[in-house]
C-alpha cells in the first residue's frame, strides 16, 4: 500500500469523505480538544490509512472509471465542472457496489 498521489486523492475525495467520515470526525474532535498535536497522532494515522484504503479499493474495483476521471481532472486543471460525466460514471459504479443505487 503506497501513498496515493494528490490527483488520486482529489479524484476520490467525495468517496473518501463518505467512507472516512467517522475517523475524520474523531480526528477533528481530538484536534479541537487538545492543544498538543502529538495527542492526535494516532487519529491522524487512521485518517491517512482510511484515505489510502479507499483510493486503493476504488482503483482496484473500478480502474477504467477512476482512470478516466483522474485523467479528466488532470487535463482540465482539476476543474470538477469539466469532468462531471466521468465523475458520475465513477460514482455510479461505487454507489451500485455499495447498494446505494
Can you walk me through this structure?
- With 101 residues, the chain is an all-alpha fold.
- The protein has one domain.
- It is built from 6 helices and no strands.
Q: For the residues shown, what is the average pLDDT?
A: 93
State the assembly state of the protein chains.
Answer: single chain
List the total number of helices: 6
Spatial shape: elongated
Order of helices and strands: HHHHHH
Which residues form runs of ≥5 with pLDDT under 50?
none
Q: How much strand?
A: under 5%
- Structural class estimated from helices and strands: mainly alpha
The share of residues in helices is over 70%
Terminal Cα separation, in Å?
29 Å
Main sheet overview? none
Number of strands: 0
Question: What's the structural domain tally?
Answer: 1
**What is the C-alpha radius of gyration, as a whole number of Å?**
15 Å
What is this structure, in a nutshell?
With 101 residues, this protein is mostly helical.
Q: Any key phrases for this structure?
A:
101 residues; mainly alpha; 6 helices; 73% helix
Amino acid at each position: 500500500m503506497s501513498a496515493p498521489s494528490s490527483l488520486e486523492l482529489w479524484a476520490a475525495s467525495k468517496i473518501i469523505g463518505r467512507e472516512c467520515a467517522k475517523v475524520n470526525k474523531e480526528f477533528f474532535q481530538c484536534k479541537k480538544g487538545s492543544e498538543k498535536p502529538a495527542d492526535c497522532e494516532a487519529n491522524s494515522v487512521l485518517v491517512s490509512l482510511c484515505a489510502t484504503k479507499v483510493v486503493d479499493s476504488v482503483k482496484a474495483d473500478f480502474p477504467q472509471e477512476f482512470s478516466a476521471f483522474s485523467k479528466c481532472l488532470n487535463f482540465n486543471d482539476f476543474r470538477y465542472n469539466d469532468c462531471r460525466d466521468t465523475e458520475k460514471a465513477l460514482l455510479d459504479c461505487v454507489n451500485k457496489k455499495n447498494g446505494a443505487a
